[in-house]
Amino acid sequence: MLSTIVATAVLAVVVQDHVALRTAPAATSAAHAQLWQGELLEVRGRHLGQLQVYDHRLERAGYIRETDARIVDVSEADAPQLLAVMRFLRDTPGAESLGIAYAAAYLKAAPAASITAEPFDALGSMAERLARGAAARQGKIDKADKVEAISAHMDVAAEYGVRFVSYPGKGDPAGGDTVQLCYDGDAFRRVLAMSSGDTKATPDQRTRATLALTRPECVDPALPPRERKAADQQRADLLDKIDAATTAQLDEGLRNRLHLRRASVWAAIAFDKSRFQEPPQPAAQRAVDELAAVDRSGLADDGAAVADYSDAAIRVGAVRWAAQAAVAAPGRLQVQLQPGETGQTCVRLIDSWSKNTPTLGQRCTYGTVWPASVKAMPEGRALALTVEPLDGWSELWVWHQEPDGWKVDVLAPDANGPGLGYVEWAGWAPASRGKLLVVREAKSNGRVTRRFEVVRTDTLIAEKSANEPRQLAAFGLWADPQWRQETLSLR
Question: What per-residue confidence (pLDDT) applies to 142?
């Protein structure tokens, strides 16, 4: 937009929200449009403390108060002043569209040879924050005014060439559908392209750009499996371009974010490989190792850092069984995996003590069955195993003996799924019918929940549950020692 009107015009940027564009230079005159911060106007005159302007985006002329806008000059001499304002606004929540306007003005004013990665880093950071804010506000009726403002700010940003993409999101349990909004990342790609000379991006700038371009929630969920696999590998390759020497130069917060993102991406790759009958163990182990490399004491003391850690832990928790080799456990109950229809895996439950190894039950799935997760009750009355039907979402299949035969039921991480979550076996508690110890962790509507439960194996109804395992006597007595060593739920 700057390039189309800057040649002959005096320009002003709106610095407030809800600015009335009036038909005459008087506060009592009718308003025929509402302007938002960051809006670029062509100034055509001044009258009684009012600016006579033309809005090229709305294709409307009118008057606004001089105090609602700032005249901007995009000459080379004004570049340092524009840069200073952009620096002030880049980390100011709610001022993203205004900051983007000043970033665009600076890029127009500054000589090409003097432009570093800084304005692109700032522009991308503000655009990403704007998209995150829009996604977070969906469905919050009590904040409808803020939703309107963010939507208007995105429209303003789009006039400066900032582009956003949207993907179908999880349905809102309260009714309606949501979408995942993401910045398309153009400014961040420009940062990564600055790899030499005086304009070379700093390690922090390169890392921020890499993190922005590898967000799991901004991968198109409609991608076919093969394309999704390629996209995940591209994200991993991009992250690995931040080498060990560069990583060592990062502040602790960025270094932790880098480990968390790598953990999430390698967890996705492990799942991708399982769908193409490729060995998932190395990728899953890389995910576990990256999560273990995070220094929790160095996480920023804010909700975003905690949320990033929880997200990564859930994604790795859903796939952690892939890092372990399958070992046939002793006992009566065993499972055999066989191919079913195209893309299916069929799970046969067998009685290994029987001479004819009869099939006790069978169920097929298009999800990934993790063989190392198989856990049989010593008494031979139940068996549990983990199945991951979607990236970042694993369920627990529980086979249990009923008077009329064997039955399999599925425990899901959360009733509002599928989304992000896992359910895992934690041990068997002996009783007349036997009890199952499980932990569920899931993210729903932006909130992470983790519950430890004692479940009856005959009904799969949770008799007791708590936020911490120490609040349940059964976990103190019967939780499996190996589970305690390997689970991520006790982090």
Answer: 46
